[in-house]
Write a structure and sequence with these properties.
Length: 398
């Protein structure tokens, strides 16, 4: 077994363990977890321990209790048989002095008064204990003119006797920069530079995690900017400020219903056009709605490095790649033209039929007009209407 605590790395003097038998954590860390954090699990195996046993750390000679049924089922505070029981942590001790020390650490008392009583050799007298933290804070202020940091009191998982006390000026410097006489040097502060503050509410928080939680719940961020720039967060105090950002940087739907719903904003112009066509397209014509619902597509043909190399140095090969590129471009253009023709044909097929018949009658009238000479050797042009495709085709006949 190692001679240092697995949690705080301090030298093991007293150990606390449960039925699992892991003795790698000191009694102070175990008591802190059980009393301050309310965690009764083993730090090593994570198994829950309803009660723990605290004894002197003697390496392989540490006292071991394998059967925890030897302890009473419903013990009371104080000495129970051969052991001393601490009700607040549900821990049994085999040493009365260590039991008294742990009990004093868990007691809600004034540290200043305790030190004064110790100097007066009154340590044997019963020390004052307060029922709650507010009574202790009032005592410190009215009796000693000292303050506890409320943020550290709720954020730092330490005993009340380990909490630092400040004057008013020291507390202000502690909150703003962390540079106070009580906090100590940079090394002693461990990188603490004051409690972070919300720029909108002007309220300090214990740490960055608490501030981030506050900003996420009480203020606003742009979800589009977060997708476009991951890891960058810009917060806004109210939704009106965020809405102004939507209007300036993105595409905000200005319909009254959408403005009432909030957060109806889009990243691109094509997205808001499709939204307007689907949600607010009641007054739009069918053609305009179809145009709005079209997805803009653009193609760019790029040669590979091998093709560019052949284009520069191979004389006969460059034309082959150019021809392939041209064929692909023509094919893409032809597909787009075909789609346009089919759409026009579906909407105006009857108009095309009337127009073609009129053109055919006029041609027959011109051919029967007297006084016009025709060269029989020249092929005449006749128009034929193809019923299958609806296209007008011009055919030469001899």
């Amino acid at each position: 077994m190692d001679d240092s605590c697995a949690v705080c790395a301090e030298t093991l003097q007293w150990v606390a363990y449960g039925p699992c038998g892991h003795r790698e954590v000191c009694s102070t860390c175990i008591i802190r977890l059980r009393f301050i954090c309310g965690d009764s699990h083993c730090c090593i195996c994570k198994s829950e321990s309803r009660i723990v046993f605290v004894t002197k750390a003697l390496g392989n000679y540490t006292r071991m209790i394998n059967d925890f049924s030897v302890f009473p089922a419903d013990p009371m505070e104080g000495q129970v048989g051969l052991y001393w029981y601490h009700e607040g942590t549900q821990a049994f001790f085999d040493d009365p002095d260590h039991y008294k020390m742990i009990k004093a650490m868990c007691r809600l008392s004034c540290g200043v008064c305790d030190k004064i009583n110790d100097l007066r050799s009154e340590g044997s007298k019963r020390k004052g204990e307060f029922k709650n933290v507010e009574l202790l804070k009032n005592h410190l202020f009215h009796r000693h003119g000292l303050f506890m940091c409320s943020l550290c009191l709720g954020g730092r998982k330490i005993f009340f006797c380990e909490q630092k006390l400040y004057t008013k000026a020291q507390l202000d410097r502690h909150t703003e920069t962390g540079d106070s006489e009580v906090d100590g040097s940079d090394t002693e502060r461990g990188g603490f530079n004051g409690h972070p503050m919300c720029d909108f509410c002007k309220i300090p928080f214990y740490g960055d995690n608490e501030l981030c939680m506050h900003m996420s719940t009480d203020h606003y961020t742009c979800h589009i900017c977060q997708r476009q720039h991951p890891g960058q967060y810009e917060h806004y105090n109210k939704y009106d400020d965020l809405e102004n950002h939507f209007f300036q940087a993105h595409f905000l739907c200005k319909d009254e219903d959408c403005l009432t719903k909030k957060f109806v904003v889009f990243a691109t112009e094509s997205e808001i056009k499709r939204h307007n066509a689907k949600e607010h397209g009641g007054n739009m014509s069918r053609s305009r709605r179809n145009i709005a619902l079209q997805i803009p597509v653009s193609f760019r043909l790029r040669r590979s490095n091998e093709q560019e190399l052949h284009g520069r140095h191979g004389r006969g090969h460059g034309s082959r790649f150019d021809a392939a590129d041209n064929q692909l471009s023509l094919a893409l253009q032809a597909s787009l033209d075909t789609a346009t023709v089919e759409r026009c044909h579906n909407t105006s097929s009857s108009t095309q039929e009337v127009f073609i018949r009129q053109e055919t009658n006029e041609l027959e009238t011109i051919e029967k007009t007297p006084g016009m000479n025709y060269n029989k050797n020249q092929p005449s042009l006749h128009f034929r209407w193809l019923k299958v495709t609806g296209d007008l085709e011009m055919v030469q006949k001899d």
